[in-house]
Amino acid sequence: MSQTNSSLNKDNISAILTAVAVISLIVGFGIYFNFYSNPSESYLQQKQLEDSVVQASTNNGNFVTIKLNKTAFMHIDKSIYPQAPELQGIASYINTENGNPIKLADLKGKVVLFDFWTYTCINCIRTIPYLNEWYDRYRRSGISNLRSSLTRI
After folding, report:
1. Main-chain dihedrals φ then ψ at residue 78, nearest 5 degrees
2. pTM of the complete model
3. Whole-angstrom distance, CA of residue 134 vs CA of residue 117
């Protein structure tokens, strides 16, 4: 009888230690991913953007328009963001003036939505109506759409 109790105790202890290890792992991940006393750079960038948004927003159908606090936005430290590289390796352009390449310097100061897609990607194709709707809705505000197909022949 004592051998059975000893065996059960070893099984119980093993189960308890396994449970403690799993709980410790879960708590460890929770602390690791939610520890803000030493915030990451991306958290700081997100916080800067959140601080520059006015709390008022307008819900119009499927779109939510968030008003930007322009004064706070202009004071965001933009030096932490890397500059976008020039577009390279593009074989041809369509819907540009005389098929000329697009230079990022020409887009400075504009709101530009870059959409990189492939014609065989169903999820890419499904976004096209939404991108067209956004463009139609915001083009008077100065938004530009740049779409690039990543297809190789």
Report:
1. -85, -5
2. 0.43
3. 17
